[in-house]
Amino acid sequence: MPSMTKEAEIDRLALKLAKLVGIFRQGGKANDFHWWNENSPRSIFYPIYGYQDGQPLFEEVVQGVLKLNSEMLSEHEIETKIMFDFLQTQTISWTKEKHLNDQSLVDEAKQHVHKLVEFQAWQDVDISIGSFQLQGSPVKIGNVTFMRITEQGLELWKRELGVLWDSKTKDGLVVARVRAPGDQYKALSYAETCVNQALDVFRAFCFPFAILSPIGRSNSWQVEIGYIRPSSSTPIRIGNSFSAMLGAGSTQIELRKNVFSKLEQPQWKAIDKLILKKQPGEMESKLLNSIHWLSESTKPDTKKSKFIKICVALETLLGGEPKDEELKARGITTMLAERAAFIAGTSLDDRSAIDKDIRNYYSMRSKIIHRGAGDVSLDDIEKFGMLVRRLALSLLRKLDELGTEINNIGKLEIWIKKQKYTIPEKE
């Protein structure tokens, strides 16, 4: 927003805020500090007290400030700052010597709005991951750094929250740290989004879908991973504030051994580049959505539900047609099988095998969805999940190699046609 427009909006909001003070000074319940509690200011806006004009004014100021500084401020923080740092001071009886009038009041309101609009803050947010362990130095993915809780740090968490982890599992326990912008509410929301995205990546590319893994069935990987603050129970530190308490899960997954070892360094580098991109393109967004659904398919669920989630991951990854009539003529199964074969296949036999597998799994999908029938084995789930995982990694590599040549579904379709119909040059 240009500076003049921004200043004009600040002036407008300051006038509204000064008018709101005038409404509160009319007397009654509004000038009694008892009413400035956790329910304020809404508790004083009922028509019975004569303040029905106050609520829309207050909401207008809050939303106006939020639009001017949405990256740093939450609605809750703006409400609190306006209520207690300005309105309370300018309305309650025992701060009467601080009450201002006319232009002085407007100037003070403008200064207060300015302070909110210019507010900036960055703080570390630590979210405990009860089932992770980490030996050695921290590891980073995207905006999230996974690090061990030091002995001193563990004692600090215990002192603030009570007994948090038992002595058997304290070695190598991990927090996910995010350098987050904004007030505490904004920072926590940002950090949760970043951590959940990182955990989605771990699940999608490194966790088992169904069958036995080196450390047991996939259900043994579930404890407290990917469920950030399910009921305000995950320990969190924002700055020097601590909240919640919960014991660590019994299953301990060592990050380097069980997660980061699953992919090669160039693959992790490409994933990092993808999730750090501020404005992902169409195919990059499809890949990110597919990663989420692959992640969901590793979580505890019925076999059919897990299988359908993998189908959603595949359709999210490679589905979509620039022209509806083409899709109708070819069919979704043929389209997906063909795209999958050319995205991941490395030889004629490999492409044929991928094509056949996709058609087979989509036949199973039809039986489940359209007939409510069809049994799905753990082996089917694992093999199908691994195939879609391979496709996601292959598309990630292709996007890195080909760039804008396949950055939307239309261009991807053109690229595949070139692969099919281009005649090799004669030697």
Kindly summarize this structure in a few lines.
The protein has helices at residues 3-24, 54-68, 75-91, 102-117, 151-161, 184-206, 255-259, 265-276, 282-297, 303-318, 324-330, 332-344, 348-371, 378-402, 409-421, and strands at 122-133, 139-141, 144-148, 173-181, 236-238, 241-243, 253-254. It has 427 residues and is an alpha+beta fold. The protein folds into three domains: 3-117, no CATH class; 122-254, no CATH class; 277-421, no CATH class.
Characterise the protein shown here.
The chain is an alpha+beta fold. It folds into three domains: 3-117, no CATH class; 122-254, no CATH class; 277-421, no CATH class. It has helices at residues 3-24, 54-68, 75-91, 102-117, 151-161, 184-206, 255-259, 265-276, 282-297, 303-318, 324-330, 332-344, 348-371, 378-402, 409-421, and strands spanning 122-133, 139-141, 144-148, 173-181, 236-238, 241-243, 253-254. Strand 2 (139-141) and strand 3 (144-148) form a beta hairpin. Helix 9 (282-297) packs antiparallel against helix 10 (303-318), helix 10 runs parallel beside helix 14 (378-402) and helix 12 (332-344) runs antiparallel to helix 13. Mean pLDDT is 82; it is low at 30-39, 42-50, 212-231 and 245-250.
Oligomer: single chain
Largest sheet: 7 strands, mixed
How much of the polypeptide forms β-strand, as a percent range? 5-15%
Which structural category do the helix and sheet elements fall into?
A: alpha+beta
Summarize the amount of helix as a percent range: 55-70%
> How many separate helices?
15
Q: How would you sum up the global shape?
A: elongated
Q: What is the domain total for the residues?
A: 3
How confident overall, as mean pLDDT? 82
**What is the terminal separation in angstroms?**
60 Å
Rg to the nearest angstrom? 28 Å
Q: How many individual β-strands?
A: 7
Element-level helix/strand string: HHHHEEEHEHEEEHHHHHHHHH
Low-confidence stretches: 30-39, 42-50, 212-231, 245-250
